[in-house]
Amino acid sequence: MVLNPAPARELSDELLALVDIITPNETEAEKLTGIRVENDDDAAKAANALHKKVSVPLLLRWVAAASG
């Protein structure tokens, strides 16, 4: 099962156990991990933490704003 966890909310361990792939954006990843995502490093930390929690492939939908 592919899970897009929108809208951002806490998900039960029972549901996460059924997931084959998860595709959160930064807000959803923050809700699932407790890690605030404000930059690329935060996104990587949240992705790693979520991967440890669900042990399935994930695609973190994160868009970093360019400066300059």
Automatic annotation (TrEMBL):
InterPro entries: PM/HMP-P_kinase-1, Ribokinase-like
GO molecular function, one term: ribokinase activity
Gene Ontology, cellular component aspect: cytosol
Listed SUPFAM superfamilies: Ribokinase-like
Protein keywords: Kinase, Transferase
Span of domain Pyridoxamine kinase/Phosphomethylpyrimidine kinase: 3-54
The EC number(s) this enzyme carries: 2.7.1.15
Name under which the protein is recorded: Ribokinase
Organism: Raoultella terrigena
Upper classification of the organism: Bacteria, Pseudomonadati, Pseudomonadota, Gammaproteobacteria, Enterobacterales
